[in-house]
Amino acid sequence: MRIKLSNRLQAVARYIPVGLRVADIGTDHGYLPVYLAVNDISPQVIASDRGKGPLASAEQLVGLLSLENQVSLRLGDGLSVLAPGEAEVICIAGMGGMAITDILTAGMAQAKAAKRLVLQPQRNVAAVRHFLVDNGFKLVAEDLAEDDGFYYEIIVAEPGEMQLTDLDAEFGPLLLANGHPLLKDFLSLRERDLTRLLDAMADNNSPDSRRRKEQLEQEISRIAKVIAELE
Ligand SMILES: C[S@@+](CC[C@H](N)C(=O)[O-])C[C@H]1O[C@@H](n2cnc3c(N)ncnc32)[C@H](O)[C@@H]1O
Which of 49, 61, 101, 123, when mutated, tests ligand 1's pocket best, judged by the most ligand atoms within 8 Å of its CB? Predict the structure, then answer.
């Protein structure tokens, strides 16, 4: 059976080397583990979720495709479902950046024992990059995927060291260095969204609002500068 992933999950799957044991934390529907199993990318996949409902839908899919020998299901919070070293690649996709850093903090032994982390934070991506570098990981790849007009950032990290400026963390050092083909469109959309937000706040002059407007103006101008450098 052919499993068709969204562009977002396809981009996550692209960074999973063939032949390694993988854990997908917060698997929900289980599409990624099933894709990895069906395509013989991973010999053994752990599909885990803290929600009984999501894990039940993953279980249903695994059963439907008779993949029980290749995909094991685990109910539990974050990396607590893994023994250190059990998963060589840990994927965490489709969650907020803070949820991802909380999971990695609580399961640092398991995260450090993995060869690779493949992360797809929905928000607070800069905080995830800072967290990784501050905790003994280096970014080895970054990617962007687009689905239905929304853009998603994928971060691939391995144990190691690297330097990261605030600007790198904000825009992605490897996305910038490689001039990712979607980067300009992604940043233009972000610039448009922030400009709309700023316009909507035009009449609000409370001290908090003025501070927020100033931050937005600075962010918009940083984005405009990066876009200009990409042109
Ligand atoms: C939006 S879904 C993402 C599903 C899938 N990973 C994807 O990218 O399409 C987030 C899933 O993460 C699970 N989740 C959130 N926090 C978690 C945690 N700390 N440990 C395990 N699962 C978690 C939720 O129950 C939910 O099923």
Answer: 49
The 10s digit of each residue's pLDDT in 145-175 is: 999 999 999 999 999 999 999 999 999 999 9
Helix-then-strand count for the chain, H and E: 10, 7
Q: Is 54 in the pocket of ligand 1 (CB under 6 A)?
A: yes
Cβ of 74 below 6 Å from ligand 1 = no
Tokens found for residue 36: 């990895």
Question: Measured between alpha carbons, how far is 18 from 145 in angstroms, rounded to an integer?
Answer: 21
Residue type, 179: G
- Can you say whether the dihedral through the CA atoms of 66, 71, 75, 77 is positive or negative? negative
Flag whether the pTM goes above 0.85.
yes
109 closest CA partner among 71, 146, 78: 78
| Whether the CB of 44 sits within 6 Å of ligand 1 | no
Asked if residue 27 has its Cβ within 6 Å of ligand 1, the reply is yes
pLDDT at 198: 94
Flag whether pLDDT at 214 surpasses 80: yes
State the average pLDDT over residues 97-121. 98
Protein residue with least CA distance to atom 9, ligand 1: 94
